[in-house]
Amino acid sequence: MIQLNLYGTLGCHLCEAALAELAPLMTDVQVNQVDIADSNELMARYQLRIPVLQRPDSGAELDWPFDLASLMVWLGDSLREEG
Questions:
Q1: Does the reported pTM lie above 0.85?
Q2: Which of 5, 12, 45, 79 could disulfide-pair with 54, CB 3.0 to 4.6 Å?
Q3: Domain containing 28: what range?
Q4: Which InterPro entries does the entry mention (predicted)?
């Protein structure tokens, strides 16, 4: 299973849209939602960029906007290996 962090905050409609884009992949992807409001460091890094997906294994990040097709490209071989 591919682990992802989704940086966002409560009440973020774009974060909800990002989760909706991830929904078809949920059998292969586990998403850890990280509220940036809980950390000054995360606020400084992500407040103007959320939602942002991050792969903890590589540190690679994907900024919004993204759709299912761009997610598939970003996940690349990792997703094919899972499937």
A1: yes
A2: 5
A3: 2-82
A4: Glutaredoxin-like, Thioredoxin-like_sf
